Batch of 2 targets.
Target 1
Amino acid sequence: MEPIKKQIRNFVIISHVDHGKSTLADRFLELTNTVPDNKMQEQFLDMMDLERERGITIKLQPVRMELDTDSLKIKNLKLKIPDSKFILNLVDTPGHVDFSYEVSRALAAVEGAILLVDAAKGVQAQTLANLELAKKQGLAIIPIINKIDLQQARTEETKQELAKLLNISEQDILSISAKKGINIEKVLEAIIAKVKPPEINQDRPLRALIFDSKFDSYKGVIAYVRVIDGQISNDEKIYLMASETESKIKELGYFKPELSPQKKLSAGEIGYIATGIKEPGKVRVGDTITKLKVKSEKLKIVDIEALPGYKEPKPVVFISVYPENSDRYGLLRESLNKLKLNDASLYFEPEHKEIFGQGFRCGFLGSLHLEITVERLHREFDLDLVVFSPSVVYKIIDKVDKEIFVYSSAEWPDLAIIKEIQEPYVKLEIICFSDALGNIMKILDELQGRYIKTEYLGLNKPLLTYHIPLREVITGFYDKLMSVSQGYASMNYEILGYEKSDLVKLEILIIGKKEEAFSRIVPKEKAYPEARTFLKKIKEVLPQQQFSVPLQAVIGGKIIARETISSRGKDVIAPLYGGDYSRKRKLLEKQKKGKKKLKEKAQIKIPSDVYLKVLS
Ligand code: GTP
């Protein structure tokens, strides 16, 4: 159907992770007949295998739905809305803090946001963080409590929390069950009533904001766009303003949610433009697409103001990544470029290490982002990788007061030149139920966190603020938090800046040889227990060899802990039954000598999954 602008509604669903965004989107897809019954599956918009396996949304996903209130799929469902036909452009977003850049981009493409809150868990950290983003963008907010069907639902308390947070009346909050389909029609009514239709700037020259992209080997880079002004047909030429690139469109259309080719896209709409551009770096998220030839003679491209783009995301966790087989460096570079199209927050730059050759230093928004990216490189591009310990960026002041930024333990300077070590600190906010507060504070104190304050979102709902080294937040803190709160606590953090810290480099030797990938930076006072735990972990996951393998932990050349992986004993005397003792001894002696020789020459190859297991 040809859209009339006042009948378009562009919106996102935002929430904390797992509060039910994709499930609510499923109900919309069903009600509007966007996906036929036989194709429907749970969390339909989570299209990557990895998303389905992990049960989390990683990528934003737009979908265009046609709502015809006269032929809604649920019989007898009467919507209290005036017109009968609407276009609903929904962008499903991830809920995990590491993917908040996906959320922020989606917000710039819409006019409204459904703020979904789990009735059992109530307001959580990303509820607050995403709400802040939506407010900054000036979006209409539709507060909704989901999962009211759960036995442990605390619908009334959650309503109070949310009403206090938004400074609204409890009556303005809808209560639904996305899973059971309860009150979904009320959500549709609220979207139509509260989300403003997009402004109509059809007659102005084309300006379309790229909010996401992906690579297609035939159609080139496919830009996901929100058309702000003007319109564009599928046979026209486009111009990308920031990258100063021109191209002839290969195809354009809507997301249904698969790509559905159309003849044109116009102001107010969300859709895609297959640019035909094959170099991924030329199509950047946040860039403005306009037409190469502006129809009105008076206006030239230089007169068109580019749309405000996005703030470049700032990676906080870094790793070095090398192909296991150095011949595959080119493939790794190409794969990272393609992945970046689909993940604008991914940062990488080439680097070189003596033993590993050419590789990349990659930056991420958090440790889940890192883990997912390494997994995607392996799955989508069939790459076996050597991945170094994740690290924050340390600042070292040397003896002549020069600042050195260190991105990985491999670059840690010699002790002799270090005057002062600094590391990034974050403001960490944790929301939990009161009963978990004591245990959470205990963990934070152990991690050298500085208590700042406790506020209350509801009677039983403290919001705790600490200042803590980022290094602690990215290494296993989340799992600890989940375990002491039975999964009910949630966290968010923002970088504060650098602070002085007492840190040392812990090195691991395997058969006396330094295994740089396992080196890590640790607080001096925790070096010994860390070394013991780490060696035990390596011992668990490193496959046994034909000879025993000594593992040592070293600081500044001094061994502080050791472990030994015993040899994979081949039972050489098994075939000999009974008597012949001297033959048995001979065989064992021979085996011992052989092992000694092996050990002298020994160099073991560490499979990449071992790196991942050890470093996870
Ligand atoms: P992320 O995108 O990863 O943040 O998750 P999400 O917000 O999209 O949540 P999702 O829709 O994947 O739902 C998370 C879990 O909650 C799934 O197991 C759903 O089946 C369940 N769920 C969602 N809505 C409801 C509901 O109304 N009631 C009940 N009982 N479970 C629900």
Target 2
Amino acid sequence: MKRIAVLTSGGDAPGMNAAIRAVTRTAIDGGMDVMGVHEGYQGLIADDMAFLARRDVGGIMQAGGTMLGSARCPEFETLAGREVAVRNMEQHGVEALVVIGGNGSQTGSYVLSQMGFPVVGVASTIDNDLEGSDVTIGVDSAINVALEAIDRLKVTAESHRRAFLVEVMGRHCGYVALMAGIAGGAEVVVIPEQEVSPENVAQQLRAAYDRGKQHAMVVVAEGAKNNAERLVEHFQTDPEATGFRLRVTILGHVQRGANPTAADRLLGTRLGEGAVRALQAGQTGVLAGLRGNRVVTTPLEEIVGRQKPIDLELFELASIMAR
Ligand code: F6P
């Protein structure tokens, strides 16, 4: 194999740059050329790609986001769009593609590999909802941003004897909320995998208040049925229910833009290298991920359309710690 391309797709995740750097330098080390595709699958269709040299990927590892740009690309979901993408890569002599991204992006990888074009995915999403990797690039940084916000809000919660409701990202997955909730000492964690009613949240807050807690923290996953908006709606109808005066913070995209933590830089580097090694070994249609602290590959067909379950024992742990 003489030439590969690399792209980042879907939501940007801290650590993507480390993965781009690792793909580029591992491939060049193995005697290959590397083309960086701009703005994900959109760039493949628009034929927007350029060679990456070792130096082009220097000084990027500590930066959040992705130096290649990213996009969500509905056109790639059509056969016509994908055919243009493959034709463009072939015209550049690109023989294989590395896709750094999350669930939707790896569905794109799978479909492309089913068309006969060699693709290897790299597990990257702040949601950590992708099968095939215990952790995905970006999730550690996103949890740390959420945690910093929780710690700061706690200061105000303590000073004003309030309860704070913090909503974090994660799409349909509660991983970020659960981990930030445990690490941030939340009184209540609300996640889609273990739905609780607003009445139940109020009861837990009330119980904390009655135990003498002078402030409280509720961490809510955006994907929960009772997300921040729904909970606030409920608490407005019965402001006395919790015992606390309540304030709400929705963190949103602020969680994606962090400088990557050491863990995400290392993960990006290891998985980027792993993807190129997989291609060199003749693998295609697989995802490079981390399992039991080892870089492994998993067939994309075992991953697409699925959501990695979270460990509900950790949910139990969160509630024991809150008592
Ligand atoms: O998948 C990453 C993520 O940040 C989710 O947590 C969130 O639901 C979604 O992307 C937001 O997407 P967008 O940036 O397109 O608004």
